[in-house]
Design a protein that fits this description.
331 residues; alpha/beta; Nucleotidyltransferase, domain 5; 2 domains; 9 helices; 20% strand; globular; disordered C terminus
Amino acid sequence: MVYLGVDIGGTGIKAALVDERGNIIQHAETPTCASEGASCILERVKNLAVSLTERAGTQVMGCGVGSAGRIDHRRGHVVFCSGNLPGWTGTHLGPELQRTLGIPVTIDNDVNAAALGEAWIGAGRGTSDFLMLTLGTGVGGAIMINGKLWRGARWGAGEVGHMALYPGGEPCNCGGVGCAERYVSAKALTRRANEGLGSGRPFRGIRDVIAAAEKGTPDRREAARRGVERWTGDLALFLMNLQQAFDPQVIVLGGGIVRLGYWWDRLQEASARECRPRSLATRLKRAHLGPQAGVVGAARLAMLARQKGDRAKEAPGQRRLPLPVLRQPES
């Protein structure tokens, strides 16, 4: 049996057929074209999903979808989404996709889906309580408690990127100021390195920064390393706050940056400095599934939904006992 997993991002939509062991059987992706609006995004999701199910060669048992934003996973509804997917708020993603595919569809937040993938066969395997953060253009979060996702009363649990790290600090796209996302996203690392560069060609992204920190020319190496030190210092402060608030067994860090070198040791050192005076320890792990965490976790969503449905069918129904017949005593 196979399941379809779909990961909807600001720049690309990924989809994969995943078996019951977490192996990717087939994979495809397409640009999101987010600037064209919600209807275009939805049409691309449908086309990609249909294309893969038609190529499956076997029955697809269900579809799971991870999407940015606050997601009502029971109704498959995008409650709120800002920034990377304009117009996406209010999209009835689950029902629309289920009508197209004709199979059960389960929707959740994209980082929630990635966390399920890491809990299943990745860095969170065997861990009942952990946080997952994704560091990219923004900062996303997911919370696993007792082996289950904690989604919050209004589907907003894990939106830690918009916690205030520096009150009164830099303005954020969300409308707030001093949000963690402005300081600890991968995009923030590039900005920090460029701030210390002065003249010369600016760093184009995190890979450029890390490459310069490891073996760049003296001026670029110095700017890159100063940027990394400031960035890992902010990230360590943020992680310490999360450790204090949730006390997880481990914090799993995901995103493209986790596959790069140099910065990880600096983060471990900065984290130890933040934790030591507080008699605290923060255990950090890099995500194992890389860019495929979203589709694997989305497929896991569909798998768990099917298992829950099967258990409900197998559970014996409650029998309503007949009311006792009250007889009048014989005279």
